[in-house]
Structure formats: structure tokens, C-alpha cells
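Is this the right way to post C-alpha cells for a design question? Let me know if I should format differently. Anyway, here goes:
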């Protein structure tokens, strides 16, 4: 009976069955240890209450100082390392330098009567006599107006109140000189505030009053300009030409605008009248401001770095519960959860001052820390991410600067939304220029970013953005998505030490040479299987049945449990199964075309030889996407790439046996058996090169998953149409069955190592 008698066969079969069952059990146990998070929305809510309770957190204010200290203390409580508060002196930080209750604005609108069209003077400014005076009185700051832009204090008298539509470019072009005019503009977001303000100053307007239909509590909006990809405060934009000639630029409530319109309409009905605006504005601006940035980190085992940030400042007229105490509180919960697991990546946590001034804090930090730009792999920004279905705010926006990460985030959010978040939705967009929060500062340095945000809500940038509008039930959604993204991108695992750890290798490789070499070594392991077959002097029917069964076991286990089921669990049933079926149909057609031209009588040796060739083709195709995986893995982590090489190399050995055995037995000879076995593995490094040099940034996890499923379909057909029939033809069925068990057990052990 050669190498194996019935007694030995029984032992091998029993051991193989035990190993197979045990390895499956271990796999299930490992899956049960998958990282999960229990998010404490009570803790998040408490942090929101504490942060928003200090009131408006304008950068440079005492409220920002208190907030920075609170965040720093919470970082230390969580267990972050290198916790510190950095200060940056920002020049050109154009912002009213006073607490809200110190701002003054007195505006009186009235009708005046007098001579019209006096040469050299604005209409109605000579020989006037007030025939009727109606006054808006002293406006209540934070309820009736907000400052958008202005420096110093002044008293503007007898400015003609003019309805200026929506402040379109065509309206400014047609108006010409606007000296001594007070422009009343219905702002509809059709143009930027900066462009409206620029036109007003260029054409000598005295005052600009902005309102919006239906808006009674005016919001604060920073007047900034995008120049060279950076946010620039208005006075510093346009080469600084407006720094010394600013005029009052005020957002007023709709009710005040209605009164002003009444005066304008009454004056239009009587050519002897004109609407006049007297105003006294006080709200001193500053050119330099202190901006704080709070940092802390969780050190990982590798060199990859991820940063998560949220701005802690607010606009001057708002306590900023949603914008952005929510984002800071979610960041604190994320830090707390991640501190309980081990990560390959170092995760840095930052809260920014100066975001409402034009992302000045994050810009200053990156300018001061150029090393961050070189080391950082991903930045995640959290801004105003509170979702409340009760008020229609149920959509989370996620903007990515990288298509591959966008695919990952889309998969993760789909899994999470289907698990108890039916009222909510999330949209993942691949867009490098979306949003105007701190992630834009990182985009300027070509750092990959994810920006998380909620849609604008009625209390946005208003005094009413208080803790009572926060939807506690929605706080965990953003938190959970980000936790799973960081865990996946950052290489998260349980606190237990890994079984295999290569200390000598750290980080990844930017060169294609190292990944190619790793993939080549893994692929050449198929040749070892070929050599094993060659050293066997004679292949008996029993051994041939065993080897063919082993080959079928190897291919079926890989195909069904890894290439199909594993990809289904990762990327969904329908698309993976379709790809699997297409692969099966493809190889079935190829097989039929080849067999069609054969003589009706084909020798048993010829059949064995063809089975070996088909097995080689199937495994060669299978090794190509494995090479893709190795190439990408080594770029992420050299350590993981080497471990992956060892695991794939081990399971390539039985693949080489599966190829060489039928080729040798079919009359192909030792040399041909070895060469074809080696050639089967050479597709491994070709796959790595294809991933690194050709596919580049377009290669996504979904594409790899679909290709693996396609290969799985090919291997199933080869197993049932070639290997098993040839094994049965040896008339040694028990040897075939044990071979299937042995091959399955061997392959399951190698896959277990890959996990």
C-alpha cells in the first residue's frame, strides 16, 4: 500500500477531522472577541452641559480659558499621554473684542423732508426738516442684531436708507457710487458675505444692514475669504486693502427690517421725503488674539498616526451647545473608549480654538508642527454632529478626501444604521473641498481627512444654541461610526498580546521593492509543494487518490469559507455571490471549450495531467488577488506584511502539491511538475506589483473582495469537475475522503494564522 496503510489512513483521517473541527471552533471564538463599544451618552451629555455652561467661548476670552482647562483635565482623567495646552498669537483675528453685553448699537430710522437732488450732495441732505420721527430705539443685542464686521466706534448721521434687494453683483454694478447710503439687503445666501461687504466698501456705502426673511434672531457669520486654499479674515484678504477702511456690517432681525422697509416705502410715495438712518455703533475689533489648542494622545504599537479633532470655541453671541460642545464631548467619549483597546496606530486628540475666526487654531498648529504633516495618515473632524429626527435633523454628513476610506466608512455606517438607527441617515461623499471646518487646514497639506457634521439647524450661531436643544439619543451615532473607523484604520485589537510579533520591523514601506519581495517569497512556497511530490519515487493509486482529495479539500475550503462566505460577511451577499457565480461560469465555459476538441477516448494519465493544469490555472488566478492583499498590507505595516507572507507561504505548500501530483502522475515528468508548481505562485508578486504600480489609489477593498469571490467560483468548479472525478477514478474512495479532510484541515490552520 506504499506510504500509507489502512491503519495509518484511519489515524490521519481522525486527526484531520479533529484539527478541522478545532480550528473552526477557534475561528468562531476569535470572531466573538471582535471589538465592540458600549457608548455612554450620559457622559457625553454631561460634558456638553459643562462646556456650554460657561457661555460664549470666543477665542482669547476667559470662557475659552476655562473650557481649555476642563478639556485638559478630562484628557488626563481618560489616561491620555502628553496632555498640554498650546497658545498661539494670531494676527489678523478680526472679531469684536467685547463681551456681548458690552456691545452697543443705537439705530433710529425716520422720515425727513427737504430739497431733492442738490448737486454734489446725496439726495435729501440739504434744507431738511423732520416731519415725522419713528424710532427703533436701542436694539437688544443677541436678539435684534449681531456684528458681522466693523472696527472701532462711530456715529453715522443722516444716511439715506435704501432697499438694496439681495445685494447681487448686478445691483451693485447698476448703483454706482453709494456715498452716505445705508444699504438694507435681504441676504439669501446667493453671494458670499465677503463679496457683498467688498462691493459696499468699494462703492463708498456708509452702512450695510443684512437681514433674512423669516429670521428673527440673527445668526453670527464670520466674514472670511478663501485664498490659496486657506480661510482668511476679511481685513487680511485682498492684500489687506480693507484693514483701515471698514464700515459697520450688521445682521438685523426681520422685525427691524420690516420697520425700515416701511419708511422706505412711505418715502417712495412722496418725493419730498426720504428715509434716514442715524446710528451709533460700538464694538471694538482687535488685530491680534490668543488661540488655544488642547492635545493628548494614545500611543500605538506602530508608526501610523491618526488625529481626531473638534473645535471648542463658539461665536460671540452663542453658548454653542451643538456648535460645538457636542463635537468636543463626542471626542472625549471616543478617547475614553479607545483607551480600553490596543491600537497599532497612535491616536492624537485635539480641540481647536479659532475655528469660528476662520480655522485659525488648526492652521497655526500645523504651521508650528511641520512634523505632524509628515507623520499623520488620517485626520477626522467632528463639528455640530447632533442629530434629532423630531426636528428633521436626522442626517449626518461625512466628507472624505480619499476614495478608499470613503468606501470603508460607507460600509461601516451602513452596518451601524441598520442596527437600531432607522430614523437616521448618513451620506458619505468623496470631496476634498467640502465644508469650512478644521479639516480644511489638513486638506491644504494633502493629508487624508474625514469631516463629520450635521446639517444647519434653526439655532445655528444664535443665543438659543443651548443644551436643551441637544438630542441625547442621537449622540452615540457619530461616536460609534468614528470608533469603528479608527479601530479598523488604526489596527485595533483586544488588549491581549499578539501571538506573533516581529519587533525588528516597524511601520510600512514607501517602495514597491519590499512588498514585491515579500509577495515573491510567499508565492515561491508553491514550488516547495512541487519538490515534495518529486521526491516521492512512485505515486500509487492510493497516494494519488489521497493527493487529489487533498487538493480538492484545499480548494473547496478556501473557496467556500474564505473567498465566498468571508467576503459575503464583509461586503454583502448579492454582489459577492454574483461575482462567485460569474467565476464558476467562466471556468466552466473554458473547460467545455477545451474538452470539446478531445478524442472520445482519453487515457487516465491524460485526464490526471489536465486536472493538474486546471488546478494550476485556478490556483494561479487565486494567488493574484492574494498578491494584491500582500502589496497593500506591507505598505500599511511591514510587520503585518511579513506575518501575512508566512501564513500565505504555508498554505501555498499544499497548493503546490495539488498542482504537481496530478501533473507528475499524468506523465508530465518531474521537471514540468516543479516548474508549473513554481509558476503557479509567481502570480503572487505580479498581483503585488499590479496593486502598487497600476491600480494605485483606485484599488478599493470592495474590488479585492469581488475578485476573490470570482476566484472562489473558479476553484469550486475545478474541484468538482476535475479533482474529485479523477480521485474517484483511482478506485480508492476512502483515501480520497481522508485526503479531503486532511487538505481542509491544513488549509483551515493556515487561514487561522492569517486571522
Amino acid at each position: 500500500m506504499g506510504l500509507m496503510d489502512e491503519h495509518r489512513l484511519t489515524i490521519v483521517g481522525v486527526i484531520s477531522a479533529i484539527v478541522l473541527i478545532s480550528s473552526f471552533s477557534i475561528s468562531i471564538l476569535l470572531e466573538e472577541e471582535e471589538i465592540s463599544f458600549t457608548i455612554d451618552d450620559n457622559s457625553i451629555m454631561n460634558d456638553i452641559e459643562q462646556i456650554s455652561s460657561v457661555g460664549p467661548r470666543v477665542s482669547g476670552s476667559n470662557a475659552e480659558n476655562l473650557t481649555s482647562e476642563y478639556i485638559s483635565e478630562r484628557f488626563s482623567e481618560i489616561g491620555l499621554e502628553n496632555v498640554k495646552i498650546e497658545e498661539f498669537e494670531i494676527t489678523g483675528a478680526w472679531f469684536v473684542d467685547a463681551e456681548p453685553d458690552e456691545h452697543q448699537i443705537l439705530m433710529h430710522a425716520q422720515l425727513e423732508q427737504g430739497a431733492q437732488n442738490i448737486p454734489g450732495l446725496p439726495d435729501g441732505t440739504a434744507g431738511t426738516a423732520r416731519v415725522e420721527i419713528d424710532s427703533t430705539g436701542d436694539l437688544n443685542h443677541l436678539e435684534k442684531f449681531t456684528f458681522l464686521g466693523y472696527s472701532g466706534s462711530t456715529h453715522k448721521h443722516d444716511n439715506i436708507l435704501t432697499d438694496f434687494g439681495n445685494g447681487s453683483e448686478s445691483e451693485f454694478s447698476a448703483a454706482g457710487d453709494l456715498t452716505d447710503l445705508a444699504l438694507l439687503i435681504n441676504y439669501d445666501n446667493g453671494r458670499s458675505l465677503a463679496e457683498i461687504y467688498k462691493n459696499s466698501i468699494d462703492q463708498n456705502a456708509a452702512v450695510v444692514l443684512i437681514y433674512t426673511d423669516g429670521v428673527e434672531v440673527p445668526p453670527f457669520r464670520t466674514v472670511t475669504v478663501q485664498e490659496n486654499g486657506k480661510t482668511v479674515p476679511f481685513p487680511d484678504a485682498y492684500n489687506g486693502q480693507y484693514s483701515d477702511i471698514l464700515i459697520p456690517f450688521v445682521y438685523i432681525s426681520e422685525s427691524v427690517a420690516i420697520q425700515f422697509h416701511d419708511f422706505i416705502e412711505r418715502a417712495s410715495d412722496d418725493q419730498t421725503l426720504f428715509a434716514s438712518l442715524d446710528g451709533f455703533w460700538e464694538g471694538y475689533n482687535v488685530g491680534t488674539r490668543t488661540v488655544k489648542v488642547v492635545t493628548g494622545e494614545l500611543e500605538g504599537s506602530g508608526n501610523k498616526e491618526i488625529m481626531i479633532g473638534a473645535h471648542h470655541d463658539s461665536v460671540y453671541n452663542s453658548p454653542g451647545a451643538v456648535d460645538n460642545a457636542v463635537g468636543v464631548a463626542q471626542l472625549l467619549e471616543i478617547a475614553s473608549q479607545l483607551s480600553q483597546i490596543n491600537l497599532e496606530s497612535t491616536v492624537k486628540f485635539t480641540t481647536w480654538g479659532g475655528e469660528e475666526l476662520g480655522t485659525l487654531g488648526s492652521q497655526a498648529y500645523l504651521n508650528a508642527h511641520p512634523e505632524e504633516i509628515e507623520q499623520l495618515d488620517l485626520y477626522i473632524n467632528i463639528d455640530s454632529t447632533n442629530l434629532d429626527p423630531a426636528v428633521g435633523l436626522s442626517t449626518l454628513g461625512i466628507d472624505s478626501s480619499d476614495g478608499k476610506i470613503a468606501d470603508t466608512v460607507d460600509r461601516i455606517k451602513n452596518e451601524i444604521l441598520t442596527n437600531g438607527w432607522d430614523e437616521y441617515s448618513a451620506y458619505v461623499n468623496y470631496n476634498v473641498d467640502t465644508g469650512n471646518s478644521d479639516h480644511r487646514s489638513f486638506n491644504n497639506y494633502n493629508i487624508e481627512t474625514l469631516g463629520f457634521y450635521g446639517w444647519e439647524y434653526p439655532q445655528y450661531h444664535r443665543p438659543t444654541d443651548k443644551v436643551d436643544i441637544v438630542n441625547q439619543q442621537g449622540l452615540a451615532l457619530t461616536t460609534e461610526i468614528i470608533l469603528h473607523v479608527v479601530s479598523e484604520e488604526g489596527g485595533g485589537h483586544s488588549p491581549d498580546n499578539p501571538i506573533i510579533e516581529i519587533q525588528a520591523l516597524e511601520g510600512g514601506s514607501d517602495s514597491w521593492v519590499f512588498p514585491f519581495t515579500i509577495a515573491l517569497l510567499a508565492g515561491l512556497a508553491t514550488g516547495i509543494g512541487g519538490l515534495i511530490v518529486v521526491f516521492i519515487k512512485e505515486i500509487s493509486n492510493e497516494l494519488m487518490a489521497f493527493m487529489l482529495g487533498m487538493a480538492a479539500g484545499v480548494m473547496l475550503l478556501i473557496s467556500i469559507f474564505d473567498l465566498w462566505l468571508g467576503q459575503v460577511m464583509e461586503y454583502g451577499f448579492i454582489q459577492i455571490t454574483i461575482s462567485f457565480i460569474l467565476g464558476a461560469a467562466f471556468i466552466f465555459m473554458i473547460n467545455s471549450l477545451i474538452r470539446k476538441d478531445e478524442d472520445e477516448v482519453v487515457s487516465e494519465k491524460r485526464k490526471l495531467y489536465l486536472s493538474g493544469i486546471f488546478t494550476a490555472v485556478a490556483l494561479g488566478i487565486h494567488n493574484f488577488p492574494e498578491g494584491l492583499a500582500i502589496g497593500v498590507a506591507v505598505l500599511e505595516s511591514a510587520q503585518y506584511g511579513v506575518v501575512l507572507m508566512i501564513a500565505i507561504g504555508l498554505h501555498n505548500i499544499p497548493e503546490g502539491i495539488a498542482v504537481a501530483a496530478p501533473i507528475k502522475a499524468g506523465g508530465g515528468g518531474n521537471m514540468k511538475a516543479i516548474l508549473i508548481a513554481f509558476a503557479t505562485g509567481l502570480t503572487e508578486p505580479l498581483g503585488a506589483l499590479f496593486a502598487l504600480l497600476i491600480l494605485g489609489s483606485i484599488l478599493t477593498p470592495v474590488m479585492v473582495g469581488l475578485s476573490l469571490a470570482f476566484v472562489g467560483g473558479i476553484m469550486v468548479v475545478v474541484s468538482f469537475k476535475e479533482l474529485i472525478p479523477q480521485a474517484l477514478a483511482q478506485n480508492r474512495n476512502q483515501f480520497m475522503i481522508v485526503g479531503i479532510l486532511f487538505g481542509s484541515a491544513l488549509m483551515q490552520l493556515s487561514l487561522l494564522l492569517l486571522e
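Format looks fine. Someone answered above. Worth noting: The chain has three domains: 41-90+295-493, 100-283, 512-754. The first strand starts at residue 81 and ends at 96.
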